[in-house]
Amino acid sequence: MFCSNCGRAIPEGVAYCVQCGRPTGVAPVAAAATGGTAPAAPPTAPPVAVATAAAAPFPRLYYAGFWLRFIAYLIDSVILAVGCGMLVIIMIFATGFISVIRSLPENPTPGEFFASGILLGIFMFIAGILAMVWIYYAWMESSTTQGTVGKMALGLVVTDMQCRRVSFARASGRFFAKIITGLIPFAIGYIMAGFTAKKQALHDMIASCLVLRKV
Question: Is-above-0.90 flag for pTM?
């Protein structure tokens, strides 16, 4: 688990964060095993169990700001552009889309154009690309890596509000919430990641997610 205050990784059963001394809200392992209650201690004097765990090589987690997330987005955009381009080429040849276009007369009437199925083909291409982008983000952000290739390159992870790995459903909700974020003029929904308290964009708030940076 992770500290909700500073983002430091904390071993299970530890009552105080070794980084900032904030209580975790759980009883120490020793107290839980004997059925007793956790001894009260101020944040400046964490239990011995926490102090002995200080040397463990856990990464520190901090809120990721706007520019780091923007660079990760650019990396992912390049990867998706290549992948979607290959998908479109495959779909064009697999569906015989070029043959359909060539079979149209030089100046097709609206009836001939609609009857040819070109609009259906275009809709299939768009749906295929959207599905590919959705699976890329939702699957990778809910996987053990907790981030896309762009995020992994910059040491970023997507978590819930308790710094835990998100489910595929939550990652999907975060992805589709970007539609709402994109409707806000001047990209303010995205720029919110630069000035909100927990560096959350609008879609992060909607899906109750955080984007954290590992140090």
Answer: no
Residues in contact with 139: Cβ distance below 8 Å, sequence separation at least 6, in sequence order: 168, 171
For residue range 19-78, what is the model confidence (pLDDT) as tens digits? 666 666 655 444 444 454 544 444 443 343 333 344 445 568 899 999 999 999 999 999
The closest of 154, 85, 72 to 125, measured between CA atoms, is: 85
**Per-residue pLDDT reduced to its tens digit, 107-156:** 766 666 666 666 777 788 888 899 999 999 999 999 999 999 999 999 99
The label of the residue with tokens 């955009």 reads 77
Beta pairing partners, 213 = 62, 156
- SS3 state at 178: helix
Burial status of residue 179 (CB atoms within 10 A of its CB: 0-12, 13-18, 19 or more): exposed
**Whole-number Å distance between alpha carbons of 18 and 3:** 9
Residues 125, 126, 128, 131, Cα dihedral to 10°: 180
Helices (H), the chain: 29-34, 48-52, 66-95, 97-103, 110-115, 118-141, 149-153, 168-183, 188-191, 202-207
What contacts 1, CB < 8 A, 6 or more positions away? 9, 10, 12, 24, 162, 163, 164
